[in-house]
Amino acid sequence: MNISCIIFDLDGTLVDSEGLCNQAFLDLLPELDCSLDEMITRYRGQKLALILADIEKRIGRKLPADFEKHYRARISELFDTELDPMPVVPEESGK
Prior knowledge:
The protein is an all-alpha fold. It has helices at residues 18-28, 36-43, 48-59, 67-82.
């Protein structure tokens, strides 16, 4: 059997980015009056478009047209500084 590629479901398997993605919303939208745990519970596994629509209802206004760009930039910053492997994922040995 020849294997040409392996596809991983990265989030929740190798890393857990759910908290950082929701932290980005809290960082960019201080009017969201809830905890990180509440955000994770509410939005776990949902598509970004549905999350953004729900957030607009919650805050009572449309998000700026460039919000997604700023959101993705904030996620990138958080991933660069805070994204860690899941506890069961071995660290690279350098070999």
